[in-house]
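A favour, since you know our structure tokens better than I do. Would you make up a two-line entry for one protein for me to read? Write everything out right here, beneath this request.
=====
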Amino acid sequence: MSATSLVSIEALDGDNTPRLQVAIDDLSASGGGRLELLAGIHICRGLRLRSGVDLHLTAGAILRPVPDYAAYAHTTVSVIAEKSDRGMIVAKGARRIGLTGPGRIEAGCESFIIGDDETVGTFIPAEFRPRVIVFESCDEVEISAVHISRSPMWTLHFVDCTDVAVRNVTIENDRRLPNTDGIVLDACRGAVIEDCTISTADDGICLKTSIGPQGVAIGRCENILIRRCSVQSLSCALKIGTETHGDVTNVVFEDCSVSSSNRALGIFSRDGGRISNVRFSRIAVECRETLDGFWGSGEALTVNVVDRVAERPAGAIENLIVEDITGRMEGAITVISASSAGIRNASLARIGIDQRPGELGTAQSYDLRPTNADLAPKADGGGRANAWTRGADGRVIGLRDYPGGMPAVYVAGVTGILMNEVRITRPTPLPQGWNAIDVVFETAAPDGSGAWQN
């Protein structure tokens, strides 16, 4: 076979794993090419993609991974996420690999739901769930046109990859199942995500820098472009963090739309990595309140720095531009540093947001989760690790009341913030529990006590 070889495989009843894996291995060993899955249902356990291979799902082709965590014991990965060390389709150290459409991957999330916690608004997930796609240390990666639905955990996870392109991908996950992030770029360098449509309960498009098996950051995340994507998320639609062990720099989100979401735009520093040179431009947002099982509630923009582990202080957030943002929110815009690392040089320009009350009232608190308490919830307080924990008073730890009520914009612990043409339209009269001051700045007095400057 040459590098342009084409191998087509028909759908057969039963487990197709051995024949698919052999075809992938042979194609790679012979110089690479396209492995084409023809129309029909292809049932499989874990697959390992090899260098030079494009796994192509033709129109009408459905790849249906077996909905059983044990089925992926042979496709483990090094970076653990939510206790998961397995993926349905994985690759490591591969070059020139692809997963292309227009077929579908149906990932079977319903088999990984063990209950329903209506008090916080989420399903209760199984303890162990596989991710759909995990590519580690790969170069020249393309995922395009494919439609992925019902992921049990993170959907696309790129770890320490370079030259990544994700285009025209559709992701449709259950809107009540936690940790079903759409696209995660983890310590990747040089990536473009464009023209994608994502609907999920957790983060839509997320950049992070995880910690590796040796206890250090797996790398930096830099030179990333996200554009023309439509996202619905009950966590944060377009996000950096919360795992930030390594630096994140040179990131652009532009010309996107966020609808039916909890938070629209977010940056969350927790683990020591510095986040710098980030721009959000020309984004339409629609943010709604949610029950307190989901982080935040109705914020168009949330930026915060929190020391999650005392021995490893959070890194600073520097050089942030947020411009040409329009839409509506039921929460506020918050820019908060609760860490000495701080937030420096932030610019908010040409922002036009309609702030309206929600039906739940949960937006009247700002949210600094995840905190140290979320790492290992205590049994007496109730909760789920990396999600929510209740204190002795029954309230979720990390939720704080806005001083004086909810404003339009709340800024605390920030050095150098410029606001130009920031217009937040608020109802008249203001609802109960809202702050009469539109923009609230909190600074520290010389003696360390709280002082207000508006």
Q: What stands out?
A: The chain has a mean pLDDT of 93. DSSP finds one helix and 41 strands in the chain. The radius of gyration is 22 Å. Residues 70 and 142 are 28 Å apart (CA to CA).
